C-alpha cells in the first residue's frame, strides 16, 4: 500500500495510510485485546502476526448446495516441506507453505473422515487413519512404501515412526480403544505384527511420536511409552473430571520434553533418569509407575480459568533465553451446545505465556503473566465446538509458523520480525525511531530492501509535515531511487505547495531519473513568480532538453509586461534567446543591461561584427 503514489491524496492521508489494518475479503482474522477505541493508542507491540491461509482450498470446501457445507477440514499435519490436510470425505491434500495444493498431491484414501495424519521427519512418508478402520501409508516420492492395514474398529489416531524408512523396522502406532504398534514384517515373513501396548481408560484421541517416545492421550490421562525399553514410563492423570468432548493436545518441544494441554491446564512433562526415581506430579495425579528408573516428571504447569485449551505448542523469540508457550483457548464461560444453536459462540484466543515452573521452596507452580493475548476471528467461529479447533506448528532454523485450524478456515500466525517492528513504530507515529532503527547497519540486514525505502519515504513526508524541509530534502537523496520518478515528482510538489522549493532545488535530479518535462517547467515557473534571480541561475545550469524553451519564453514575456525593468527576468530572456540561437536578440538585451555576459556571448557565438558595431557600448 505504501507503493501507491501520494500525489493522489493529501499529505495527511498519506501519513495515516499505514495505520489502516489490511483486512481479508472475508474480514479481519485477528484483533488485539489490548487495543482501545483510539487508533493512535498501541500500548503493546504485537508478538505475532496473522493472515488467512490457503483461502482457495478453504473456499472449495465450503461450496455446498443452499449454502450448506459439503466438506470440512478434520485434521492437519505440518512439515517443513509441506502441509497435509485431512477432510471429512476421506481425502488428504498436500499443500506448499504458500497455501497452494501441490500438483497430483490429492489422495482419496478413506471411506470416512480422516482423523489424524502423521508424517516422518524426513517428509517422505505419511500415515493417515479414519473411521473406516484403515491406516494407510503413502510414500510421497515412491510407491514402494504404500500400504493399507484394515482394523476391526474405527482408528482415531495414528503416528508413524519418526524415521520410518531408515528404521530397522517400519513401525507405526494406531489408536482406538487401545494403542497398538504395527510392525511391517520383512522378507521372508509376510504381513504385519501387531502388539497391544495399552488398553483401557477410553478412546485414544491423539498420538505424538518423537525419538523413542510415544505420547498418547485418552479421555482420562496421558501416557508415554518408551520404544527403546518397551515400557510405559508415564501416566499423567488429568486433575479434573473433564467432559469427553474436551480435546487433548500433545506437542514435543524436544526429545524428552512434552507439552500437554487439556481442560483449563497446560502441563510440561520431562523425562528424568536415575535410580528408582519417583514421578513428581505436583498436580496430584496418581502414577502406578513410580519406581521406574526412566520417568516423566511434571516440571511446569499453567492454569487458564477463562479458557479451555484447544492446543499448545512451543515458541522461542529472538534474544529470549527460554522458550514460551502458544496456547489456543476456547471460552470456558459459555454453554457450548446452546451457543452453537444460537450461533453465539465467542471467538477463540491465542495466548503467548511463559511456562509456570515448579518452585520447590514454595511447593507450588509459579504464577506467570501473559505476554500477549489475541482474539482470532476464523470463519464460522460462532458455530465451532471446542474439539473442532486444532493448533499445529512447524519450527525451523529460519522461521516458526503456527496454524490455527477450524472446519472451514485456517489462520497462519508467525512471529513478528524487524519489518513488523518498523511498521509498529510507524503506526505509533514514531517516525524518528523507525528511521533510526532502519539506518542501524545491524537492523538493516534483517529488513527487506523495500521496507528501508518505504520507511525513508514515510519519514520524508513526516519531516515535510513538521516543516523540517532541509532535513527532508537531504533524505530524498538517500531514499528516493532513480526508478522512483513519480515519487520524486510528488515530493517536489509538496515542497512547492509549502513554498520551500528552493530547499530541494539542489537535489532535483536532471537524469537518472529524468523527470517529466511538465515537472521541470513547474519548477521554473515557480521561480519565475517568486525568485527571478534563482530562475536565471537554474536556466544557466539546466540543459534545455529538460523543458520546452518556447513555453518558458512565453511565460517570461508575460511576466515582463508586469515587471518590464526586472534585470533578472531580462537576463533570463536573453539566455533563452541565446539557447534558441537568436544571438542578436540576446546581444541586444545584454548591451541594454550593460552585462558582462555579452563578452561570453560574443566569444561563444563568434559575433565579431557585433564587436565592431557596438564598440562604444562595450568600452563602457
Mind summarizing the main beta sheet?
A: 5 strands, antiparallel
How far is the first residue's CA from the last residue's CA? 64 Å
The quaternary state of the protein chains shown equals: single chain
Task: Give the fraction of residues assigned to helices.
Answer: 25-40%
Give the rounded overall mean pLDDT: 83
Structural class: alpha+beta
Tell me the number of strands.
31
* Spatial sequence of strands, sheet with the most strands: 1-28-25-24-23
* Residue windows where pLDDT falls under 50 for at least 5 positions: 1-27, 33-41, 63-67, 275-290
Helix-strand blueprint:
Blueprint: H1 11-17, E1 30-32, E2 48-52, H2 55-61, E3 73-78, E4 83-87, E5 91-95, E6 101-108, E7 114-119, E8 125-130, E9 134-139, E10 147-150, E11 157-160, E12 170-175, E13 178-184, E14 192-199, E15 206-210, E16 213-217, E17 221-226, E18 231-237, E19 249-254, E20 257-262, E21 265-273, E22 294-303, E23 307-315, E24 324-331, H3 336-342, E25 349-354, E26 358-359, E27 364-365, E28 372-376, E29 390-395, E30 400-406, E31 409-415, H4 418-427, H5 431-439, H6 441-444, H7 449-465, H8 469-479, H9 485-497, H10 501-504, H11 517-530, H12 532-541, H13 549-562, H14 567-579, H15 583-593, H16 597-605, H17 608-613, H18 615-619
Antiparallel strand pairs: 1-28, 2-31, 3-4, 4-5, 5-6, 7-8, 8-9, 9-10, 11-12, 12-13, 13-14, 15-16, 16-17, 17-18, 19-20, 20-21, 21-22, 23-24, 24-25, 25-28, 26-27, 29-30, 30-31
Helix pairs in contact: 1-7, 4-5, 5-7, 7-8, 11-12, 11-13, 12-14, 13-14, 14-15, 15-16
Amino acid at each position: 500500500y505504501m507503493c501507491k503514489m501520494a500525489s493522489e491524496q493529501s499529505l495527511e492521508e498519506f501519513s495515516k495510510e499505514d495505520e489502516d489494518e489490511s483486512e481479508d475479503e472475508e474480514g479481519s482474522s485477528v484483533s488485539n485485546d489490548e487495543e482501545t477505541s483510539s487508533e493512535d493508542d498501541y500500548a503493546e507491540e504485537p508478538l505475532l502476526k496473522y493472515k488467512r491461509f490457503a483461502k482457495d482450498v478453504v473456499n472449495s470446501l465450503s461450496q455446498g448446495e443452499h449454502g450448506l457445507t459439503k466438506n470440512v477440514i478434520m485434521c492437519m499435519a505440518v512439515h517443513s516441506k509441506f502441509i497435509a490436510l485431512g477432510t471429512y470425505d476421506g481425502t488428504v491434500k498436500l499443500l506448499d507453505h504458500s497455501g497452494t495444493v501441490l500438483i497430483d498431491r490429492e489422495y482419496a484414501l478413506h471411506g470416512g473422515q480422516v482423523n489424524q495424519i502423521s508424517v516422518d521427519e524426513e517428509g517422505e512418508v505419511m500415515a493417515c487413519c479414519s473411521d473406516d478402520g484403515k491406516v494407510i501409508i503413502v510414500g510421497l516420492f515412491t510407491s514402494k512404501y504404500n500400504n493399507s492395514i484394515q482394523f476391526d474398529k474405527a482408528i482415531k489416531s495414528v503416528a508413524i515412526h519418526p524415521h520410518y524408512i531408515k528404521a530397522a523396522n517400519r513401525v507405526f502406532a494406531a489408536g482406538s480403544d487401545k494403542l497398538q504398534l504395527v510392525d511391517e514384517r520383512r522378507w521372508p515373513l509376510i504381513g504385519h505384527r501387531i502388539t497391544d501396548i495399552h488398553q483401557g481408560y477410553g478412546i485414544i484421541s491423539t498420538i505424538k511420536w518423537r525419538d523413542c517416545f510415544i505420547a498418547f492421550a485418552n479421555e482420562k490421562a496421558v501416557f508415554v511409552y518408551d520404544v527403546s525399553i518397551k515400557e510405559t514410563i508415564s501416566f499423567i492423570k488429568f486433575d479434573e473430571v473433564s467432559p469427553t468432548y474436551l480435546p487433548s493436545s500433545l506437542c514435543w518441544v524436544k526429545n524428552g520434553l512434552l507439552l500437554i494441554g487439556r481442560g483449563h491446564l497446560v502441563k510440561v512433562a520431562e523425562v528424568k533418569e536415575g535410580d528408582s526415581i519417583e514421578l513428581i506430579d505436583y498436580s496430584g495425579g496418581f502414577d502406578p509407575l513410580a519406581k521406574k528408573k526412566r520417568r516423566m516428571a511434571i516440571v511446569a504447569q499453567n492454569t487458564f480459568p477463562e479458557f479451555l485449551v484447544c492446543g499448545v505448542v512451543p515458541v522461542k523469540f529472538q534474544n529470549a533465553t527460554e522458550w514460551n508457550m502458544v496456547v489456543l483457548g476456547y471460552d470456558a464461560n459459555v454453554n457450548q451446545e446452546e451457543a452453537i444453536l444460537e450461533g453465539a459462540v465467542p471467538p477463540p484466543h491465542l495466548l503467548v505465556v511463559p511456562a509456570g515452573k515448579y518452585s520447590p521452596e514454595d511447593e507450588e507452580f509459579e504464577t506467570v503473566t501473559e505476554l500477549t493475548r489475541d482474539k482470532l476471528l476464523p470463519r464460522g467461529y460462532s458455530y465451532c465446538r471446542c474439539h473442532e479447533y486444532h493448533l499445529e506448528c512447524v519450527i525451523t532454523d529460519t522461521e516458526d509458523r503456527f496454524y490455527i485450524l477450524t472446519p472451514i478456515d485456517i489462520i497462519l500466525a508467525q512471529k513478528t520480525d524487524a519489518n513488523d517492528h518498523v511498521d509498529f513504530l510507524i503506526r505509533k507515529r514514531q517516525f524518528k525511531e523507525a528511521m533510526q532503527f532502519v539506518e542501524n547497519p545491524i537492523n538493516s540486514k534483517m529488513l527487506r530492501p523495500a521496507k528501508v525505502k518505504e520507511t525513508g519515504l514515510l519519514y520524508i513526508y513526516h519531516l515535510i509535515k513538521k516543516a523540517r524541509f532541509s532535513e527532508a530534502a537531504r533524505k530524498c537523496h538517500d531514499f528516493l531511487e532513480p526508478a522512483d520518478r513519480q515519487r520524486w515528482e510528488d515530493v517536489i510538489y509538496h515542497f512547492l505547495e509549502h513554498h520551500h522549493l528552493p530547499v530541494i532545488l539542489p537535489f532535483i535530479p536532471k537524469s537518472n531519473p529524468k523527470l517529466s518535462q511538465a515537472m521541470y517547467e513547474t519548477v521554473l515557473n515557480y521561480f519565475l513568480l517568486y525568485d527571478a534571480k534563482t530562475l536565471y541561475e537554474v536556466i544557466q545550469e539546466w540543459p534545455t532538453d529538460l523543458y520546452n524553451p518556447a513555453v518558458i519564453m512565453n511565460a517570461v514575456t508575460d511576466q515582463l509586461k508586469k515587471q518590464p525593468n526586472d534585470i533578472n527576468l531580462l537576463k533570463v530572456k536573453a539566455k533563452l534567446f541565446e539557447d534558441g540561437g537568436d544571438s542578436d536578440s540576446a546581444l541586444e538585451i545584454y548591451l541594454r543591461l550593460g552585462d558582462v555576459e555579452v563578452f561570453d556571448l560574443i566569444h561563444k557565438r563568434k559575433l565579431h561584427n557585433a564587436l565592431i558595431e557596438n564598440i562604444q557600448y562595450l568600452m563602457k
